[in-house]
Task: structure prediction
Amino acid sequence: MSMDRRDMLKGLATGGALAALAPGVAQARERKELPDGALGMLYDATLCIGCKTCVTACHEANELGPATQDSFGQGLYDAPDRLSSDTKNIIQLFQEDDEQSFVKRQCMHCIDPGCVSACMIGALQKREGGIVTYEIDKCVGCRYCQIACPFNIPKFEWETPTPKIVKCELCNHLIAQGQIPACCDVCPRGAVIFGKTAELLVEAKRRLEESPDKYVPKVYGEHDGGGTQVLYLAGVDFGKLGLPALGEQSSPALSETVQHGIYQGFVAPVVLYAALGAVLWRNRKNLSDEEDTP
Ligand code: SF4
Ligand code: SF4
Ligand code: SF4
Result:
């Protein structure tokens, strides 16, 4: 191969690498806003008494199979301590020195969900009311959604030959019938309430203003991880309750910005691969021409 060809390839390769690294190539993906009419829940941990009525109601409303025993061996009825393929909703207890709080865990119905972004064939999607729903017919069981969820919510049905992903879908089957999510319907303390997220946020801020001594001065979910349609109030630091510190940018906003940057940088390598193909074709042609020459 002549020096000219090597120089050309070197130039193209350098151009491709530079294009991939060039500042400004990767454009930040725009922030997603709360969809119109977004539905959600407000859970106020200071009102929760840990009765777990919501856990049993969730179990029944979603036909999640037999009641799950606790894993501490105390034989408590339907008292799961972690989310599983049988359990879309749990109540956990945080206790340390003189601090104590219950915390409810279920899907947060993120405004910009990592699970939706990671699901390559759209089995998980944000639908009406911003509810993040799941379609088993589309799911290939790759479990990327599990890795992508910053709240560790989706669970996989390991025990069946046709496994599916299990997570709270805000009881969308009940909402479609004009009802409200089972957990909100049965809570005897009104610790978890259902409504439009925008209105729930106003209510949460009203409570914060009315009783500042009772609460950590923040509505968790207003901005966290790009915002969630399920909001939390608590009297104990949210980190202690297992709600992660996520910053205001959603993980898809970051990952899709990086991906798009890389793919844009691939424009030049595509030119490089085309040039390489042309060189290979010419080399083969030269070789066969030489072979044909007596
Ligand atoms: S909490 Fe997890 S599973 Fe629920 S919408 Fe957000 S990323 Fe998806
Ligand atoms: S909204 Fe429905 S599925 Fe979600 S935690 Fe409440 S009862 Fe369970
Ligand atoms: S039903 Fe209400 S008070 Fe009882 S555990 Fe659930 S959220 Fe807490």
Notes: The beta strands are 39-44, 90-96, 99-105, 124-126, 132-134, 155-156, 165-166, 192-196, 230-233. The first helix runs from residue 3 to 21. The pocket of iron/sulfur cluster (ligand 3) is lined by residues 48-54, 91, 102, 104, 187, 189, 191-192 (CB under 6 Å).
